[in-house]
Structure formats: structure tokens, C-alpha cells
Amino acid sequence: MPRRIAHLLFRNPTNTGSGLPQAEPTRSRIWSRLLISALVALTLPLLGLGIGILQARWQLQHEADLSVAQAIKRLDQILDNGRQAAEAVRFRVGAPCDNNVQSALQWQVATVPFVRSVNLAMHGHLYCTSLLGPVSQDVGPQNYVDGRLLLMAGNTTTPDVPLLVVRTPVADGSVLSVIDGRYLHAALQLSVQESDLYFVVGKLHMDLSGNVSDTPIPYMDDAFTRRTSARHPYTIIAGSREGSIETHLFNYNLPLLVLTVLVGLLAGLICYRLLGRPSSPRATLRRALEAKQFEPFLQPIVDARDGRWIGAEVLMRWHLPGEGLIRPDLFIPMAERTGLILPMTRDLMQQVATVLAPHAAELPPCCHIGFNISAAHCRDPQLLDDCRDFLAAFPPGTVELWLELTERELIEPTEDTDLLFQQLDAIGVKVAIDDFGIGHASLNYLQRFTVDALKIDQSFVKRIGADTLSGHLLDTLVELATRLDIDLVAEGVETAAQRDYLRALSVRYLQGYYFGRPMPIHEFMPALRHHRNAVRDTVDHV
């Protein structure tokens, strides 16, 4: 036996406030739990993904900013060297391109880093170079950005090697310092993090592959930075193209994302389990009611004179999937305190009517069908409608509906309860006092309500033959019922001796394990047919 069921069966039956078993949820509640749990399970991964995207975007932007700053720092140093070489020979602008001038130009190329050649020009006309000596070529300042920089994909000497010309104006001429584009390319590659990086001079730009072109720079939407040097007229553009965030997440944040998914799944599972635990005993019973887990069990009531079944008492049982039947003393008191006993009884009456009404012709004449009711029912006007609906399910005169008043809670007589019992009597509903003789209100009920029968508690029946006092008490109860002209039903009959004793006292109806245990309602009709055949066979052999 599972530990939880053992705890339920052997704990104090009055302690029902926190130890009720949990009912299986209905399909709608399951879907609701699944939806909420799925939302919880998705929240953490989505939150982690959102944070990861923000972090990736920030990181890419930060790297773009850093790449631009580092690129400008390196390129400014390279271009400053070009200006330095130009400043060293500017006084030679206009001088003839003789060996001394050429030697001076070549000295700058040899001693100043990154400078590929130094050239002199007058009135927009190049006339002396460190590489070729005297030349003649137009080099108008209008081709230079801000008159100072010119980016080229190559020249006649090295057509496949980019170069950058740094122009330093001097009076009517200028000094042109040529920077090898490979140094620029190296500076870009050393500066870049994960961004795309472009060195822009006028309408031309150099990319990370060292190519110079005037094609549009690709759009960068994940990160973008654009900054112009403070010392030279060029711009650095850096950024990340579409898809960079996903790549960054996969490369750097994948373990974190996997962890958030696992934690999210765990949170969703915990949420599902917690939502499956009712927050109160009332919620537990409500869920069980919605799941149709309360089932009617019928225990036969027999005529003491010939042992024939004349009806049955309907007992409520809680069939909890996976754990079996739950004893009524573990949940009925709580159902009464929470008021759920009302819809539970209503559901029980509907189930009984649904199953037995199609077999009305096979039931005993005026078949006695008894339901237990409590004080809560007596304050509920709908009890009258429930009884009407139950009787209307059977052909007239087929069944006799009995309501058995329990004494777990005192019924306070009021004008409303008096009216209710009068209306019940008017539609033919019988009233019995359950467990008569042990409750504090039994005699009070006899005085106040119209009672049709008394049910002798099984504690008196068990002591039959054991002590003289029990016999006297039974004699007194029988005499009281005779004087009040009401029927008696003895509960808890388990032996033939008890049956014979009660029969001798003229107790009219008997009920107990001796005649039949409580059985699921779907077993009642087969059991009734079997009993009827057994009685017929007995009569035939007499």
C-alpha cells in the first residue's frame, strides 16, 4: 500500500483540513496547467535570449567603436609620417630636380616609416620624385580630399598595389608623400575586432581585403560607427551586417542559452507540479467533482420478513485514479464544511438516476433509494428541485426516495427548513434519521420534523447477545418507533443471530454485510437479478 494512502487510512479522520488526497485534474485544467507551465518554461529562455541579443548588440557596437578608434589611431600615425617626410623637404619645392634634391627625397623614404616615395610639385605639375627623378605629370589639388589626401587603387609603377598620397601645400607648390596601401591594409586588420571596417577617402574606400573601390558600402544594421579623423580628412566606418548577432550568440553565448533553456524547462515542470497541487481542501474536492471521481455505491436493504431486497442506500465513494477508493470519513466532513456536499450529492443523484432509470421495470416495487443529507442540504432550497428531478427520471410509483438525516452537523430548525420538509413530504419524499440513538439531536428531530423511519445505529446491532443493556436499548427503540408509527431500519447486520433477533423484535428492514456489501452502481442490477433468482429457487424447493 502506498505510503500516502496508508497515512490517509490511519490518520485521525477528523484531521481533514490538510491531508486530503489530490484528485486528477480535468482536461480543461490540464490544458490550463500546460499553457501556464509552457509560458513559465519559455519565459526564462526568452528572457535569456533577449538579454543575449542586447548583450551581443552592445558587444558588437562596442567592438565597432573600438575598431574605429584603434584604426584612426594607427592610420593617423602612418599619415603623420607622410606629413613628417613632407615637412622635412618642403623648402626644396621649386628647386631644380638635381642629385641633391633627389638624394634628400630618397633619404626621407629610407628613414621615415611607411613612406613609399616623396615627390615635389609646382603649380599643379609634378616635376621631381624620389623614385624616378625628374618627371612631368599633372597633379592638380582638385583631385585631393580637402586638398590633402588622395586614395588610389594603384599607379603605373604598381598597378595592383593601392596607395595613399598625402599632399602638403607649400606656397605655389606641394610635397606629395606616397603611403603604400599595404600598410593601410595592415592597420585596418590590426584594428578590427568582429566588425567590418572601411577606410574612406572621398568617394573611394578600402576594405579589410585591401581592395579600393567606389562601390556602396554594405548596409550594417546590427552595429554601426562612423568617425572622421581630427588630423586628416578621412573617415573610418565600422559595423556588423545582418546575422552577426546570431553568429555572436552561437559563438559566445551558446552555453548560457542552453542553460537558460534547461532552467526554463525545470521551472516549467515545477510550475506544472505546483499548479497540480490544489491550494486548499476545497480545491481538491472541487477538482475531484469536476473529474467525476465521486461514485455511487449501493448497499441492499432487505425486508426482514423474507429477506427480499426492497431497495438500497446510496453511499458516496471517492475513486482516486492510481490509488483506489478513499474512505468517506476522510472527505465527507470536509465536503460538508466547505459546502461542496451539495453539488456532490446532486451529482450522485444524477448518476443513480441515469443508471437505474433504464431498468425501472426490474426494480422491486416502490424501490427504496436512500441518500444521506446533512444540515447544509436543509438550508438549500435546490434540494427540492433535485428530488423532483430524481423522481421524474423514473416512471411514477417506481421508486421511493428517502433522505437520511446525518448528525455530523446540527440542523437548526427554522421556518425555511419547516417549509422545505413540508414540500418534500408533498412530493412523496420520505425522511429517515440516520444512526439513530447516538446523536445529540435525534429526539429533537423527532419532535420538529415529520420522520418516516429511524435507522438503528450499527453499534447497537453489534452488541446483540453481548450484554443485556443492548437488548433493553433495542427494545426501547422498537417501542418508540411503534408508538410513533414509523419504520425501523437496522444497520450493520453481519450475522444470522443478529438478523433473527431483530426479526423477532419486528424490525421491518435490515441492512448490513450479511445481506450484501456496498457495490458499484453498475454491479447493482446484476446482483439484484442474482438475488431474485436465488430467492425464487429457494421458494421452489420449499
UniProtKB/TrEMBL annotation:
Write the protein's name.
Answer: cyclic-guanylate-specific phosphodiesterase
Leader peptide range in chain numbering? none
Q: Which UniProt keywords apply?
A: c-di-GMP, Cell membrane, Hydrolase, Membrane, Transmembrane, Transmembrane helix
Reaction(s) catalysed by this chain, per the record, are: 3',3'-c-di-GMP + H2O = 5'-phosphoguanylyl(3'->5')guanosine + H(+)
Q: Where does it localize?
A: Cell membrane
Organism equals: Jeongeupia chitinilytica
Q: Ranges for the EAL domain?
A: 278-532
Pfam family for this entry, one: CSS-motif
Membrane topology is: Multi-pass membrane protein
Listed SUPFAM superfamilies: EAL domain-like
UniProt main location, coarse: membrane
Its EC number is: 3.1.4.52
**Where do the TM regions start and end?**
34-54, 254-275
